[in-house]
Amino acid sequence: MSGPEAGLRTVIDAALKADPAIRAVLGDPVRLTVRRSRRTPYPNASWGRIETVETGADGVALLECRLSLEIWCRDADPAGLLGPLRTALAGLDIDLPEPWTLLSLLPAYSDVFATRDADIRRGLIRLKAVMGRVG
What we know:
This protein is an alpha+beta fold and 135 residues long. Helices cover 25% and strands 44% of the residues. It contains 3 helices and 5 strands; from the N terminus they run ααβββαββ. It has helices spanning 4-18, 20-26, 79-90; strands at 32-33, 44-57, 60-74, 101-114, 120-134. Strands 1-2-3-5-4 form a 5-stranded mixed beta sheet, covered by helices on one side. The radius of gyration is 15 Å and the shape is elongated. The mean pLDDT is 92.
């Protein structure tokens, strides 16, 4: 993946890894990966699906991105991790690589799911980001 969506995910990833509250729930160093790895110690998080819709008007490009952050727990409920992660994500003040500007970033949805493995539970936070570019 390339483009502004990749830049957005990279910047969010770096901000989460630098946050002491996230280190408290996902370890130090933070166990956050681009793709899920069953070898990563639990609890851990990984990036999932990214959906992008292009909107805008004459001379202004807008991208609405929905990013999925998946939280994986063994023998535990990920619900307790969702709160600190949502709080950290809602409070991010980040700058995107030029020429894009982050207009908004909100945790829009979260849920907890069972998996085929009875010992593993999956949490999900879906982020909604709007990025703009003039010109």
